[in-house]
Structures are given as C-alpha cells and as structure tokens.
From TrEMBL:
Coiled coil: none annotated. Its EC number is 6.2.1.1. The modification N6-acetyllysine is found at residue 608. ATP binds at residues 384-386, 499, 514, 525. Catalyzes the conversion of acetate into acetyl-CoA (AcCoA), an essential intermediate at the junction of anabolic and catabolic pathways. AcsA undergoes a two-step reaction. In the first half reaction, AcsA combines acetate with ATP to form acetyl-adenylate (AcAMP) intermediate. In the second half reaction, it can then transfer the acetyl group from AcAMP to the sulfhydryl group of CoA, forming the product AcCoA. This is Acetyl-coenzyme A synthetase. Pfam families: ACAS_N, AMP-binding, AMP-binding_C. Belongs to the ATP-dependent AMP-binding enzyme family. Its cofactor is Mg(2+). CoA binds at residues 191-194, 308, 522, 583. Residues 530-608 form the AMP-binding enzyme C-terminal domain. It comes from Roseivivax jejudonensis. The lineage of its organism: Bacteria, Pseudomonadati, Pseudomonadota, Alphaproteobacteria, Rhodobacterales. The gene is acsA_3. The keyword Transmembrane helix does not apply.
Amino acid sequence: MKDTVYEPSDATVSRAHVDHARYAEMYARSVEDPEGFWAEEAKRLDWRRAPTRIKDVDFTHGSVSIKWFEDGTLNVAENCVDRHLATRAEQTAILWEPDDPEEPAQAITYRELHENVCRMANVLKDHGVGRGDRVVLYLPMIPEAAYAMLACARIGAIHSVVFAGFSPDALGQRINGCGAKVVITADEAPRGGRKTALKSNTDKALIHCDDRVKCLVVKRTGGQTTWTGQDVDLTAAMRDAATDCPAEEMGAEDPLFILYTSGSTGQPKGVVHTSGGYLVYAAMTHEITFDVHDGDIYWCTADVGWVTGHSYIVYGPLANGSTTRMFEGVPTWPSASRFWQVCEKHAVTQFYTAPTAIRALMGQGDAYVTGSDLSSLRILGTVGEPINPEAWAWYNDVVGQNRCPIVDTYWQTETGGHLITPLPGAHATKPGAAMQPFFGVRPVVLEPESGKEIDDTEASGVLAFADSWPGQMRTVWGDHERFENTYFQQYKGYYFSGDGCRRDADGDYWITGRVDDVINVSGHRMGTAEVESALVAHEKVAEAAVVGYPHDVKGQGIYCYVTLMTGVEASDELKKELQTWVRQEIGPIAKPDLIQWAPGLPKTRSGKIMRRILRKIAENDYGSLGDTSTLADPAVVDDLIENRQNKG
Ligand code: ATP
Ligand code: MG
C-alpha cells in the first residue's frame, strides 16, 4: 500500500495558489536567495517600519542566534484584526461551535473581534500588564481565548497558553516558569458533556505562586466558583472597558508567545516565538498548505493549548483574513458523528486534525461518517504523529471520498509552522509520507552516528535542517543553553529535529518517528512506527505502540502494546496470530517478542503516545517514569505496570 501515489485532480491544480511548476520555481528561489525571497514574502504583513535586514542566522553551537526582519516593526494584532476592517468588517472571523450541539453557534465578525480584543487589552492594561509582561491563559476553546492572545499581542505582552486539561501542578509550574503577572481563566470548561473546574484548578495552582499574580475570570458557564480579593470578573470588566485600544509598535524580534512542547520525550520546553518572522511564516503556510481562498470555511480541530491552535486556528487564518472555526468539544461526543455533523452544518472546506482522532473515529465504523453530507470538503490535513497508511486510506476514502488531497504536515512547536508537507496543487500524495519541504526549508538526512549528510536520493537516518526559516523558535525561555544543547549540539551546523526519516527514490520524505524510538534488533535498525503500522493494519487491532527492551540474544527485543478493537477477545492464539502477521508484513526480523494487551495507552493531552513511559515499563524500570505532568490519564500506566510481560 505504501507506494500508492495519488496525483492531484485537475480541479485541485487549477484552483491552487501554487502548482507544480510554480512550486519548483519558488522553492529554488527560496533556497538560492533567501533574503530576496523572504523580503518579498514579508509584504504579506502591514509593517509600521518595513524591514531592511532580512536574515541574520548563526547555527554554530555556542553562539546560536536567529533573527529575521530584525529592524522591522509591527503589531501582530493589528495584522490579524485592524487591517481587515476596511474590507472585511462584517465577514465572520471566528465561527465558534460550543461543546453542546444544542447551544447556538456564534459567528464573530472582524468588527466584533476588534472590539473584543480592544476591550480585553484595556482590562489587561488596567491591571498593570504592559510590554514584555507575561500572561498565562488557561481557558476552554471559546472566543475569549483568541481575544486574550490578540489582546496580549496588541499591548506587547507575551502570552503562554496552558491547555485547559492540565492539572493545577502543571499550571503552577508554567505560571512560575515564565514569571506571569496575570492568569486568565474561566469558571468552568465544558468538554465532551463534562465540566472541568478551571477556576478552582487555578486557585490550587496559585497557592504555589507569587501572591501578586492576578486572576481574571471569564464567565463561561456561570457555574459556582470561589472568588478571592485578587480575582477579577473579566466578562463584566470587558463590558465596562473602552472599545478602542492603541496597538503597540513592536520589534519583529520581540517575543509574541511562550509555549511548552507536548512533553512526549521528556520535560516540556518553553519555546519562544517572536512577532515578525512567526507571523509571516504562519500566514504563508496557512494560505498555501491549505490552499485557502476567500469564502472558505476553514476548520482546524486542535486546541489553542497546542502550537497547532496558535498557528492554524488563530494567527495564520486571522492574518489572512479568513474565517476560522473554533470548536469547544471532542470528536466523540455526543456521538462519533460530531466532526462530520459540524462539517456539514457549516459547509467546511478545509479540515485539519490529528492521527489519534482519525484512528479513534475509524475504529467506530464508517456509518458515523457517511450519514453526513461532506461534499463541501476540499482539503484534508493531518498533524502530530506519523499517520499509518491504514488510517490515511480511511481518511482519504471515507472522509475525503477520494476527492480531497491529504496534506500530511510535518512540523513541531519549535518550528512555528509546517516544514515538510505536500501542497494540494503542487504535489502528489502517498499514504504516510510528508512529501516535500515548504519554501525556504532545507531538510537533510544525516547518518545517525557520524552526522554526515547523505547525498543519495534514497536515504534513511536522522532529520535535520541546514538553514533557518522565519518561523523557527529563537530560544527556550530563560535557558538559551538548553536551546543550544537540545537542537544544535549533536549535529554541528544543523537544526536537529529529534525525528528519524527516510527519503525515497522520488526524493519524497517519510517521517519514521522519533530518533529515540529507533530500535536495534540483531544489528538491524528499525523504526518502531513500521511495526506499529503493521499491527494496526490487522483487522482486530485498534491501536499499537512498540518499544525495544534489553534482549540477551538480539540486543533489543520488540515489545508491543496492543489495544484491540471493541468486542474482540484477547487470547494467546491471537498473540500468535499477530506475531505471524507482522512477520509476514515486514519480515522475520520484525516479529514481536512480547505482546501485552493494553486497554489504553499512555498519551499526552494532545493525544500522542508517550513511548518513553512504555519503554520504561518494558525495561522493568518503572520506578522513574520521568515527567508525567502532561499525561492524559495516569491510571492507564498503573494497569500496564500491573500486567507487564517482561517480569525479569
Ligand atoms: P516534546 O518535544 O516535549 O517531546 P512533542 O515533540 O510531542 O513533545 P510537539 O512539538 O507537539 O511536541 O510535536 C512535534 C513532533 O510531533 C515532531 O517532532 C514529530 O515527532 C511529530 N509529528 C508532528 N507532525 C508529524 C507528521 N505529520 N508526521 C510525523 N510526525 C509528526
Ligand atoms: Mg518535540
């Protein structure tokens, strides 16, 4: 199945901003003359002072410095809101869908967005927030989350969004980590028919913070909350605030936000993104990767707690004057049809989600999808993990009805925007491949040990990048050394992604998973993702995670955690069947040594499997599981430890 190639249809190509020839021409220019290319692209934004110094980058470990558009000045909120007022004041900016389908959706126009952002900015100023101050946002997926981000940007404050599913401890760590002056939260966050008490969580977090930290509270549900002297009713304060607030003139390199990575591989890193380069890159990738045109209804299902929500719900779409959907709920409530019903209800044109959601919905059966009219859809997107070909094919056939190109966008919190992705009208797609670099992006495949660049077209190794792009992170908040050591130390002169990859004979890129997830079985290096894909391709398997464990003979053995489809009975025969299956699918070398039935897998709150925890369990080293603050359901881990197979 891997080598199936899907060419874009004539309709897709003729509508696209970028076709194959244009991609080739633009890409060549972007890497041969980055200064000229990005000086031109910077004109996407309205600058107060247009930049003349375009690129100033040094990847040398010990003196890493990344600057783009350094002498330019602008205001990000002005670019995402004010500049659209002349032509789009009455166009919907944010189309909000609440958790409960019975509650009415809201369409917020650019004029209303401007008013609300200004009101919130004025409230923040009243509470002493100004340029360079940090504000933590701990909010449901409600329009106020976007207002708050843009209000900070308007007055030059730096926001740090913390996903509303995080615990008081995780929230407290992040408030202290960035030295926030203010936390913006809500009384409660409705999600999947349940309510999380955000305000009480915030109270618990604030016990461990400086008492001067103020708490501004949005009334989302009106549910019971406790109020202390420091608390401010933000909904009421906004009502009383002035509807206009001047936008600060910011330097291109002034920080826009701090955002912690998902914590899949270790302790989350406070990634810093700046104003000019980030916005140019978010706007450009949003427009071109999703081939967005006027009149489109674009929907990214992510949460603003993740970078995907920053770049592709708020900043990219609004910089482009698009209509962006915000969804408060979850894919499976009230039923597994919710995504598709919402697509039909709002005639969504671009739909962007994560493999974890696709796999979960695939497991529920096609009937949930086929009951909705999805004829408005044009482009489908995926992000967050390698997507296994099985799930890709389902997304393509059942959701996209074989009509919608799938953009498998590879990128990271650190990269600000897409790095490797097919573009709808320019590239073919292959199930599971991220395909081709975005403009200005120079991927290289390195030999893992020597760090030597592999020149052959067909290559397999670690993925690094030979040059910068405007959306690249600038530092780890408060710890530039960690930034240098994490990304620039191991392979000199490159930005190291931490991911493995393969380049095929056509020069297309396949992400094979994290470098930490590569195992060495009897001298053969293999990505665990390949074994997982084979397992998931079996009709009885819903999800699988594979790690290595010490093996006397082979060096490393293959340990598989397998979640079965609903209704399938676990048995020793089935284990044998799966071992034989993987052996046939990949080869004898990939035959699983141990299989453990896993009712659930440990995942981050953004739905990524935390293999580092599974590795510890497989290695019998579960005394020190590392940072588990971003784990979605800690109880899953106890069950897995209880039933581990490697009881050596
Ligand atoms: P941490 O850095 O704290 O371990 P994380 O890497 O999961 O957490 P993110 O920045 O949210 O944090 O995720 C980026 C990673 O997600 C990438 O490095 C890659 O491993 C994976 N990823 C994202 N998109 C894709 C994709 N389209 N295909 C394959 N892998 C992807
Ligand atoms: Mg990472």
